[in-house]
Amino acid sequence: MEKKIVNNYGSFDITFVKSSGSTMWAADGKKYIDFISGIGVNCLGHNYKPLVKAISKQARKQIHISNYYFSDVGLKFADELLAVTGFEKGYFGNSGAEANEAAIKLARKYGQLNGGAKRKTIVTLDWSFHGRTLATLTATGQDRFHPECFAPYPEGFKKIIPNDFDALKNAFDNTTAALFIECIQGEGGVNLINPEWAQAAAKAARDAGAIVMADEVQTGIGRTGTFLASDALGFKPEVVTLAKGIAGGVPMGACLFRGKAADVFVAGDHQSTFAGNPLACAAGLVVVETVSQPEFLDRVNHAGDYIRGAISSWNLPIVKDVRGKGLMIGTQIDSKIKPFDIEVKCLEKGLCTTTAGTDVVRFLPPLTISDKEIEEGLKIYKSVLEEFCK
Ligand SMILES: *Cc1c(COP(=O)(O)O)cnc(C)c1O
Predict the structure, then answer these.
(1) For 4-14, what is each residue's pLDDT tens digit?
(2) What is the 3-state secondary structure (H, E, C) of 352-378?
(3) How far away, in angstroms, is 102 Cα from ligand 1 center?
């Protein structure tokens, strides 16, 4: 069958027809273990009964009403998310890039109110990824995302090198509106940010009068074993952005504010038609209530440590590093081998993975992945890596 969807993604020629837990089935009946969960989205796995039930129930009540009004489930979800994260207010959107656009606009307005027209710059980190809209592409600290064909890019972004204390010396001044940190760089290669550095960077930014924002679109909602990754890094941002896992597969994003950032947005500053509709909020409510349980997060940590430990224990010569936190996992591969070739081989054998940076195979399995599915996936992964060692 000819496919009429623009192949912006270089998609594989596999058509999936059903999924359950961390297992997916293609149209030809072939079974796949899901180590990527729709790029960190299906945090409760596929066909998670309480989620399906909540969405079905909400669909019968109301799917969408516009933001001219409030919905009961929207208010409840906001209360729950803010209580769990310790933020004061929130904006709901539809995606990660859009949540980050909201954060960027908020930072610019904060700068204007606290230093005038010159305080507009947003400082982001080298190797970061913030999204595919023009502003979020510009915020992204990887030049491969800045091809000339999309120019001109917006002004007012500056990059610093993460984990480099020297880079903090001249990073912030009275032109800085915000420091924007991607808490573990997903797309950039599952790169960990050193907590001492993050705290020092946050302090330096605040000392210069800027606010601190965390892009937790990938790391948030339990992915790294704490509800927010910034909790573990030990700096409490004024703004945090969330998306991917937030509604377990229903498109949604959020930008949460507190402290100096809490009262920046007023009516009319930022809006979107679909944003935070009742269907998405009903899904989000199940996700947040489930993921915020301490036992749930303990299990994420255990499963992640187990997977990293297993890969390290194979002692394969092509594996240069195994890193990450919770169920955000990167295997750094010898630069002679393309991680994409490993991804292709894994798929052939029935395992969905993805890549990151230039030399990393990335796993973002459902946070609910079972021991059995972990074993099945690791067995395939080991056999593929061994093939590449030959
Ligand atoms: C995926 C991602 C985004 C973009 O989210 P979309 O929903 O694709 O717009 C932004 N920031 C980070 C850290 C991401 O991982």
Answers:
(1) 778 777 788 89
(2) ECEEECCCEEEECCCCCCCHHHHHHHH
(3) 13
